[in-house]
Amino acid sequence: MSFHVGGEVVCIREPDWLPEGAAGGSVGETYTVRGVFDCDVFGLGLLLEEIVNPENLTWKQEWLLDASRFRPVIKRKTDISIFTAMLTPTKRTVDA
Predict the structure, then answer these.
(1) How far is residue 14 CA from its own chain's centroid?
(2) Taking the mean position of all CA atoms in its chain, how far away is CA 18?
(3) CA distance 14 to 39
(4) Residue-number span of the structural domain to which 46 is assigned
(5) Fewer CB within 10 Å of terminal CB in the chain, N or C?
(6) What does the DSSP 8-state code read for residue 55?
C-alpha cells in the first residue's frame, strides 16, 4: 500500500491498543494523511489531519497510528452508462 502526505485513507480496523488520551479513528471514516513514519513497534505509522494525539514521552513525538489499520482511498471515475444501456429497450428483428 502506498501512503503519502495529503492522501486520503479510510480506517478499516479498530486499534488493538491506544494510550490514555489518544484517539485512533473510527472504522469506515475517511482521514487525510499529514505524516508517514517508520515505526519500531508496528512498521509504518501515520499522523492524520483530523486526529492530533498527545506526545509520546519516550520518543518525544506524537503517538503514531498503525498504518495497517488504514487503506488508501482509491478514487475512480464512476460511469454507469453500461448499466443504463442494459435498461434501454432495443428493437429486435425476427427472420421469418
Answers:
(1) 13
(2) 19
(3) 19
(4) 8-87
(5) C
(6) E
- In the chain, which ranges are E strands? 8-11, 30-39, 43-48, 55-56, 61-62, 65-66, 70-72
69-to-43, 54, 66, 82, 88 alpha-carbon distances in Å: 12, 19, 6, 35, 43
Q: What pLDDT is recorded for position 1?
A: 59
Q: Tell me the residue length of the chain.
A: 96
Backbone torsions φ then ψ of 61, nearest 5 degrees: -155, 165
Cβ atoms 33, 73 nearer than 8 A: no
Give dist(CA 63, CA 77) in Å, integer.
35
* Per-residue confidence (pLDDT) for residue 96, from 0 to 100: 62
Identify whether 12 is part of a domain.
yes
Mean pLDDT, consecutive 10-residue segments, the chain of 96 residues? 91 90 93 92 90 87 92 84 77 70
Which three three-digit cell numbers place residue 67? 498504518
Residue 60 lies in a domain: yes
The total number of structural domains that make up the chain? 1
